[in-house]
Amino acid sequence: MLKKIITATAGVVLVGGLAACGSSSSDGAGSSSGGGDISMGFAQVGAESGYRTANTESIKAAAKSAGIDLKFSDAQQKQENQIKAIRSYIQQKVDVIAFSPVVETGWDTVLQEAKRAKIPVILTDRAVDSKDDSLYESFLGSDFVVEGEKAGDWLVQNADTSDTDGDGTIRVAELQGTTGAAPAIDRKEGFEEKIAADDKIDIIASQSGDFTRDGGKKVMESFLKSNDNIDVVFAHNDDMALGAIEAIEAAGKKPGTDIKIISMDGVRDAMQALADGKINFIVECNPLFGDQLMEIAKNVVDGKKVDKRVLVEEGTFDQEQAKAALPDRKY
Ligand code: GYE
């Protein structure tokens, strides 16, 4: 895929997790804040997860402290809403547009409209799958393939204890993120690549829970009805993992023990569940890059050269590490 080639060849800059932190305050969706010289239209994915809430707060707080006039919209996980929001930002002649594309494909037309209007675009968090990388100035966000690989590596390294029924096969139920979204596609890819190293590990069920707690719970309930030998849940985010925990407990099983759980993001509720032994491993995905986004936006508007790809730095947590990290957890 093109975006991966870009990742490998263009100047990649790593943003330290804490350096990218914003404080938490919020102005409410659809609002305009700040009042500085630069105006930014931001088309957010939605409010589907703890990651997203923290990301929105970080962006709003960072705009305020950078003196950037932020126009913010929430697309409720619908691409058509994001496209509408971007078109309205073009009409309003904002100085810069930033957005986190809900899915990877289908952006060329609206991005060409922005280009024709000479409004620079910055991608945040999620990538687009487009052949034309001149349609955006920079992409600031995590490497989701690497995140999937970290999850897969953990399972391969912990294969023995993850065969919870001891029958020689590790049956994995996968809760995928939003269908067509970069993090869902890439996390699956990275995970599958790593578990291929161990024949005993099998994905026996895989379905989208749309990155929501409710989605994770419902899909897990149906997985549990049709499979009585699931050893491991691989959830593409914490909210779905927390929903799966509810379903597993309702089915009379012990999450973290009878069924191991691997999750992604590292939001506080899930870190607590990890510390409590209900989740086994979390791969961090850091949403606190608001300050970094505002810095890139200012440079873009000033006509300065910016890096095409800016990575967010992140780690992983096991149960002991979660206990140590919880008191200072920012999201
Ligand atoms: O992992 C999930 C959210 O795009 C990285 O979106 C983001 C993902 C995150 O809904 O919780």
In short:
The chain has two domains: 2-142 and 286-314, Response regulator (Rossmann fold, 3-Layer(aba) Sandwich), CATH 3.40.50; 144-284, Response regulator (Rossmann fold, 3-Layer(aba) Sandwich). The protein has twelve helices and 14 strands. It has helices at 2-9, 50-66, 79-91, 108-116, 144-157, 159-162, 182-195, 213-226, 238-250, 268-275, 290-301, 319-325; strands spanning 12-15, 32-33, 39-44, 69-74, 96-99, 121-124, 138-141, 170-176, 201-208, 232-235, 260-265, 281-284, 309-312, 316-317.
List keywords for this structure.
331 residues, Rossmann fold, eight-stranded mixed β-sheet, six-stranded mixed β-sheet, binds beta-D-fucofuranose
